[in-house]
Amino acid sequence: MRLFDAHNHLHDARLDPHRAALGPALDAIGLVGAVVNGTREADWDAVAATVAARPGLIASYGLHPWSVRSRSPHWLEALIARLDDSGTRGAVGEIGLDAWIPDHDLDDQRTVLLAQLKLATGRNLAVTIHCIQAWGPLLDTLRAAPLPERGFLIHAYGGPAEMVAPFAKIGAYFSFNPAHLAPKKHARREVFRNIPAERLLVETDAPDMAPPDEYNRHPLPVGADGRAPNHPANLEVAYGELARLRGLPLESLAALAEENFRRLFG
Asked: Could you point out which of 87, 188, 200, 208 has its C-alpha 20 to 30 Å from the C-alpha of 157?
């Protein structure tokens, strides 16, 4: 089986105590490709080092809405330099809008988002977008913005079912996350039951968004932050349960996800 993780943070320090065992575990589940997303200037070096250490990984650099306030005066020049180094094999993200964080400033977030979308569009690089409680503003922003011809990913999509079609119309893909298997996420699972097949991807967001305990095939111990990180090999859980949700053989879902991944990320 050939599996592709459309969104993760494999460079994250929370995975460092387990790093020696990660590679064999990912080999065992059949991981072929994955996108490693940076979220702030301070972690872009770690993204580059992680991608250099394993074939099949794609570096994605971006300024996450949670990091907008702490950006340096030269963040955009630094991002351009990273994309220059990555060439056509890179991506832009994780970027987006978030109205959940306290004292959020959507106007400032939108300014930063638009600057990054412009860079991605000029280079036709895939974009990965984060959104919480800002679905209307995000759709309005994307409709009016330059967008890369190859499209963009809304990772761990949690928006309304009725917004799938308008997002897809302007180039969106949607990735299923194993955290969607929690009982309270029933509505999200129903959305993913009906997302157009040609717009469907699979992700882990590791070390975040772990599956519920009863689905967790790769449990990790609690870290210094008091939480157990999500093992990236739980990608196989997301694939298996999404195939079950959509009534597909696992091999068929894997082939579909590979085709979609390659179309978006190259």
From this structure: 87
